[in-house]
């Protein structure tokens, strides 16, 4: 633990610790745990979670070079002991074992079991029939070659790759390039038995300056350019023609803890709205991905549905302001009660609300959950999403820079214990 004693949070060298138990004198066993803390320096951008994911990808490529990777956030845990088996059945049981780029398990919370149920039950299952669910940043089983930038139409033409191309793409680590070439050529190899040599290279590929001059974050790995890096990465993968699978086992695959308070939840919603709008206004938006890429039209509509969350705050805010405006100006925006035309907006309102209530009942949720979530939807849209829209607009005009706000998942009282 001495290596952590004088370590500053945002200014420290690379730390890699290999933990092995019950080795029985064997030096070539796969370690039980490899702890990695990448190098951070004040003047070097570290790209938040996306940068951390890319470091983990490179180090795991040196240590094991496994063809599949599981991505789980630190505040989540495996709730179903068979989830790895079920996800691999989807990967390896698909067409030619090459149909899915990643298998996504939906997010559920043990402290708020009803959150996201409707999203997972209807939206998640609905887009499975197109190109598959969005990459949600956790609970995901990735194919390593897809993370390395492999396109769907390149599978049948996998062969020897020029080393100079790999240097420009993956950086200047010869050991990592060797493992990346093996992955992209479709070869299956064992892990490195020389752990000490892998450790030296692991420190190198986790340096803060390793990605300079390479394609990491642009064409390879988890992509930079938006605080919603998971949605951006999944969108680019889908635009290359890949599909994604949906694993919804019983019991739930993974469980996590929700934001412990209202302000923390609002900060998280604001960050999501900002990141999604960054993607919408970027050159990698789903419309261009459909026109010049291989994103299907209906999948484009699904992405637009989620990317426009922040934009919904404008009509919502205007609608909320209408009653006050009518009182001030002594006017109305709806037909009077005694007029027959009042039945049109009344019928639309009742039909929509009854339909959403039916969705909650079919999902096994209570009427109270439906009422609370409808109320919270109005609050989130006119506050967190509105501020997210303002943040995204300021970034687009160059008045501010993107900031990744970390959501606190533990109550202060629990941290004090």
TrEMBL record:
Membrane topology of this protein: Multi-pass membrane protein
Entry superkingdom: Eukaryota
Gene Ontology cellular-component annotations: endomembrane system; membrane
Principal subcellular localization: membrane
GO molecular function: cellulose synthase (UDP-forming) activity
UniProt: Mn(2+) binding residues: 49, 73
Keyword annotations from UniProtKB, A to Z: Cell wall biogenesis/degradation, Glycosyltransferase, Membrane, Transferase, Transmembrane, Transmembrane helix
GO biological process, one term: cellulose biosynthetic process
Location relative to the cell: Endomembrane system
Pfam family, one: Cellulose_synt
Protein name: Glycosyltransferase 2-like domain-containing protein
Source organism of the structure: Citrus sinensis
């Amino acid at each position: 633990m001495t290596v952590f004693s004088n370590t500053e949070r945002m200014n420290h060298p690379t730390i890699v610790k290999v933990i092995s138990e019950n080795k029985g004198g064997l030096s070539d066993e796969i370690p039980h745990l490899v702890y990695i803390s990448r190098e951070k320096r004040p003047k070097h951008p570290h790209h938040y979670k996306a940068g951390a994911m890319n470091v983990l990808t490179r180090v795991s490529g040196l240590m094991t070079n496994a063809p599949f990777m599981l991505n789980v956030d630190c505040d989540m845990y495996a709730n179903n002991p068979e989830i790895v088996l079920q996800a691999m059945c989807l990967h390896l049981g698909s067409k030619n074992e090459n149909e899915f780029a990643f298998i996504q398990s939906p997010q559920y919370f043990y402290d708020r079991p009803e959150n996201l149920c409707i999203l997972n039950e209807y939206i998640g299952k609905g887009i499975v029939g197109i190109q598959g669910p969005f990459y949600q940043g956790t609970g995901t089983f990735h194919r390593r070659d897809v993370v390395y930038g492999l396109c769907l139409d390149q599978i049948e033409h996998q062969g020897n790759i020029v080393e100079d191309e790999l240097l420009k793409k993956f950086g200047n680590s010869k050991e990592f390039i060797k493992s990346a070439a093996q992955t992209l050529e479709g070869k299956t190899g064992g892990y490195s038995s020389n752990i000490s040599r892998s450790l030296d290279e692991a420190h190198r590929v986790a340096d803060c300056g390793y990605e300079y001059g390479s394609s990491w974050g642009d064409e390879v790995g988890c992509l930079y350019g938006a605080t919603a890096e998971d949605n951006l990465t999944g969108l680019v993968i889908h635009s290359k023609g890949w599909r994604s699978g949906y694993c919804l086992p019983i019991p739930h695959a993974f469980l996590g803890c929700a934001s412990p308070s209202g302000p923390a939840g609002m900060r998280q919603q604001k960050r999501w709205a900002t990141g999604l709008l960054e993607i919408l206004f970027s050159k990698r938006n789903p419309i261009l991905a459909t026109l010049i890429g291989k994103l299907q039209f209906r999948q484009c509509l699904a992405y637009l549905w989620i990317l426009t969350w922040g934009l919904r705050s404008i009509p919502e805010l205007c609608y909320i302001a209408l009653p006050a405006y009518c009182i001030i100006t002594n006017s109305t925006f709806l037909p009077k009660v005694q007029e027959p035309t009042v039945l049109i907006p009344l019928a639309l309102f009742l039909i929509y609300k009854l339909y959403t209530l039916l969705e909650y009942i079919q999902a096994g949720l209570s009427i109270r959950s439906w009422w609370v979530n409808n109320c919270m939807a109005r609050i989130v849209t006119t506050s967190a999403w509105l501020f997210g829209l303002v943040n995204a607009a300021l970034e687009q005009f160059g008045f501010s820079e993107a900031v990744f706000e970390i959501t606190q998942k533990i109550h202060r009282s629990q941290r004090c214990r």
